[in-house]
Write a structure and sequence with these properties.
The protein is an alpha+beta fold. It has 3 helices and 5 strands; from the N terminus they run αβαββββα. The protein has a 5-stranded antiparallel sheet with strand order 4-1-3-2-5.
Length: about 140
């Protein structure tokens, strides 16, 4: 029996399930943005009927960021303010630390997000956030 106030052992040992931590099959780069902007962008991408779908998205709760998987080579020309794009160098995109996991897992999504479509969605998300913040 656990002491009163102790964290249950199931909570302490909890981590991503094997299904939720599997990397995508193909190499990719990772675009990282603040969670607020990223969540807006996910909504924009999912509502756009004519645009390609959104690929897997990582959530890093500790850093409050979202990471969009994009095709390899995207990092070479990525220049969107407020975001970063890093090469995964074939390591995949397994959630690296406790508190990270898939917002949109690889199964059931596009293999990666189109960088041009993501760039537009991030720009629209930034404008929506700025407009909302200016209304306060």
């Amino acid at each position: 029996m656990e002491a009163a106030g102790a964290t249950p052992s199931t909570t302490v040992a909890h981590g991503p399930t094997p299904d939720s931590s599997m990397p995508p099959a193909a190499p990719c780069d990772l675009v990282t943005v603040p969670a607020r902007q990223g969540l807006e962008a996910v909504d924009i991408l999912r509502r756009a009927a004519a645009a390609p779908g959104v690929g897997p998205v990582l959530h890093d709760g500790a850093c409050d960021t979202l990471g969009f998987l994009v095709p390899p080579g995207t990092a070479d020309g990525w220049d969107v303010p407020g975001s970063a794009c890093t090469q995964t160098a074939g390591r995949g995109a397994v959630p690296p630390v406790r508190g990270s996991g898939w917002l949109l897992p690889p199964e059931g999504t596009e293999p990666v997000t189109d960088p041009a479509v993501l760039r537009e969605a991030l720009g629209e998300a930034a404008r929506l956030i700025e407009a909302a913040d200016n209304c306060r």
